[in-house]
């Protein structure tokens, strides 16, 4: 995902001198090509995330299009006031790029996990929140953020995510993607955990369970219509996210279900009001915290039976 983002940003900046890359003294080496060719459109603000976003807001007010990049946990938590007051309140054209979504930085522990970021920022007015699920979707999300006039937060993984799309598709802010048909149950996911959802779907269908998979790449504004369609056409809904179930995708979908007035079996999968436990690979972290493929399959079978 990170490479897809950087390549896209490079191409945008090469053709539009208003585009700037801002970083907070992290991952400077991954910007080598950008820094070499577009040094006048690159700023390293040091380990000062709040200042980086303040500078970005000022640049946007001068007609620039800043893409401010660092670890998501340091943006959504440490610099929340600056996102709220300098960017969202003023409705400035700043793009906030948080890498290391969920538990991707598995070996670095909860201080580096972005497992509450959506809960922190989803209520902020004027903010669009994008949560792409694959490298192709990162490319499309970055281009869409560039064309959108206003604050955008993009939630990235790192650099090892699998591609979930076999062919091109139309990406639109606020419109989710139904990845496959299904009648028994709908699994609604976001971000890089969609890879596991697709694997779980394949295993479940071997047991005769028909699974619809929906990718919500835009957390805000939410695709209410696509969720309502799933409520009406399938027998149960599960949301899954590499995030706490409080304030994230599960909360957003539950609001749609409650307001629809239609009764349906519903379950949220994610961290349940806890910080992630343990250390290890990303796969191990998901398994140890109730987000592995086996847990997804068992939850589906439990809910529909």
CA distance, first residue to last residue: 37 Å
User: How many beta-strand elements?
Assistant: 12
Report the structural category: alpha/beta
The CATH architecture classification of the largest domain is: 3-Layer(aba) Sandwich
List low-pLDDT spans.
Answer: none
Q: In angstroms, what is the radius of gyration?
A: 19 Å
CATH class of the largest domain: Alpha Beta
What does this structure look like?
The chain has 12 helices and 12 strands. By secondary structure, it is α/β, with parallel strands linked by helices. It has 2 domains: 2-155, 3-Layer(aba) Sandwich (Rossmann fold), CATH 3.40.50.970; 177-304, 3-Layer(aba) Sandwich (Rossmann fold). The strands form 2 sheets. The chain has a 7-stranded mixed sheet with strand order 2-1-3-4-6-5-10, with helices on both faces. It has a 5-stranded mixed sheet with strand order 7-9-8-11-12, sandwiched between helices. β11, α10 and β12 form a beta-alpha-beta unit. α3 packs parallel to α5 (80-88) and α8 crosses α12 (293-304). The model has no long low-confidence stretch (mean pLDDT 95).
Quick overview:
The chain is of the alpha/beta class. It is built from twelve helices and twelve strands.
Helix and strand topology:
Elements: H1 2-15, E1 19-23, H2 32-37, E2 42-44, H3 49-61, E3 65-71, H4 72-78, H5 80-88, E4 95-99, H6 117-121, E5 128-130, H7 135-147, E6 152-155, E7 177-180, E8 185-189, H8 194-206, E9 211-215, E10 218-220, H9 224-233, E11 236-244, H10 249-260, E12 265-271, H11 282-288, H12 293-304
Parallel strand pairs: 1-2, 1-3, 3-4, 4-6, 5-6, 8-9, 8-11, 11-12
Antiparallel strand pairs: 5-10, 7-9
Helix pairs in contact: 1-7, 3-5, 8-12, 9-10
